[in-house]
Amino acid sequence: MNTTSTWISRSVDRLRSAGKGKGGGGGEGAAQPPQPARSTHERLEATLRRGSEALSPRALRQLLAQLQEVVAPRVSEIEGGRRAQAIAAWYGGAEPGERRDLWQLMVEQFAPDVAHIRNAHERYEAAKGTADEPQAEAHLRRALASPRTRLLQRFAAFPEGMRFLVDLRAELLRELKGDKRLLPLETELEQLFSTWFDVAFLELKRLSWDSPASLIEKLIKYEAVHDIRSWADLKNRLDSDRRCYGFFHPRLPNEPLIFVEVALTGEISASITPLLDESAEAVDIQRATTAIFYSISSTQDGLRGVSFGDSLIKHVAETLMAEFPRLRQFATLSPIPGFRGWLAKHGATQLERLDERQRTELARALGMELPQIGHVLAAADKALELAPKSPVRQFVLQCAARYLGRELQDGKPLDPVARFHLGNGARVERLNWAGDPSAKGLKQSFGLMVNYLYDLKRIDKHRSLLAQGRVPVSGDVESLL
Question: What CATH code is carried by the domain that includes residue 235?
Fold first, then answer.
């Protein structure tokens, strides 16, 4: 810790202790009723802190002065980065309440000038259609630029600054539900990350068994779809007929931002079991015609909402085609994590859609006069015991097809995995009964899995259909609907 950050820490500790002796945080007496949270503007003008406030007014003023020094006009980018680094060092040892105080200072004390924006907007409106419109627009864009942007840019300047900001946003996202005042800071970080982590600045790297141990360990840590059970399991996923690729940013060189695991096969896979079978023989990769994306995992909570998954899949597909010219199909084998909850909630409505013959067959299969959704769910839990023509199985498949192919909210698929792949231009290709017979798979979707097909020539067409409120599906899935 350098001299500046040590001074910040000592000052805040001293002021924190002093505040407790002046009725700021401790002390005896009758409990006071809760009071509305004060803005930093009010707290900076105060003498004493309230019981729920972490930093005293004096400590808050000193912290604000340090932030202002980071972006002072006379301070160079390098020096500003050093000063930001000192604050980041203090932040690393700060208590949760003190961190929230820093966030609130960034939100309220580095906000855009509202009057400046209003004047610039009025000037732009008046200049529309005239020769002055370009200059007025440029003036408006400069007015909309928040002083907070420059502050955050200075934090990104020191070597670990990007790591600091990504972790800071991850914390913010957890707190937003309880404190909407933090939304401007979170949103501004997201917008900056969308630029800083644009695919043009990312590098696609293959991860193999020969990669550094630190990277291999991160695959185990961040795998979010199918848990890696052992080193043998991991080695199987990195075998000769497998590929694993990740996107890396130069400021986070040892952290895959997102990675995808790929199996090279002769056809579209219907089950995850053979893909994870450690004893299965490797496929002759020179004869492989299909690449199956069976696990895609994001690693950084702080980059939520920053989309580079579609770029990853495209880059991987292009890389694989260059290495294996016989590859013709690119598809996923994906879970349907939201299906069970949706069917439990809407199953009764789906039962009403059945015609008389279907309802009678389903009731007979369940051994009751009228089928009830609770009994259907119980029967579907025994997915491996149901015959291909089982009315229960057919009903669940029809419901899954509707869930993926028809159910939208705000123009987007309900299921989070479907939202990702369909938003990237894939189509719903095939439903696979008992595709994931694990306890997790049964709990999520009665073991159902789905193939999303990436037809590289029709990605834009599929995106256009989705924008029109129509989910692109194959003929097989359409027949279930």
Answer: 3.40.630.180
pLDDT at 49: 87
User: Per the domain annotation, does 29 fall within a domain?
Assistant: no
| Number of folded domains that form the chain | 4
For 343-379, write each residue's pLDDT tens digit.
999 999 999 999 999 999 999 999 888 888 999 999 9
Contact (Cβ atoms closer than 8 angstroms) between residue 335 and residue 449: yes
Q: Which of 332, 365, 381 is the last residue of a domain?
A: 332
Please tell me the predicted confidence (pLDDT) of residue 282: 86
Q: Comparing C-alpha atoms, which of 452, 461, 473 is closest to residue 402?
A: 473
- Do 82 and 207 lie in one domain? The reply is no
162 in a structural domain: yes
CB 428 within 8 A of CB 404: yes
Which is nearest to 400 in space by CA: 358, 340, 353? 340
CA atoms 301, 307, 309, 311: torsion sign: negative
Q: Residue 281, exposed/middle/buried by CB under 10 A (0-12, 13-18, 19+)?
A: exposed
Both 313 and 438 in a single domain?
no
| Domain range enclosing 439 | 339-480
Higher pLDDT, 5 or 88: 88
Largest CA distance in the chain: 82
Secondary structure letter of residue 468 according to DSSP: T
The CATH number covering residue 181 comes to: 1.20.140.90
Contact 259/222 with Cβ under 8 angstroms? yes
Task: For 421-477, write each residue's pLDDT tens digit.
Answer: 999 999 999 999 999 999 999 999 999 999 999 998 999 999 999 999 999 999 999
The model carries a pTM of: 0.82
**Single-letter amino acid, residue 86:** A
Assess contact for 254 and 292: CB atoms under 8 A.
no
Domain final residue, candidates 175, 196, 217:
196
150 & 131 share domain: no
101 and 77 share a domain? yes
Q: What is the pLDDT of residues 181-232, one digit of tens each?
A: 999 999 999 999 999 999 889 999 999 999 999 899 999 999 989 989 888 8
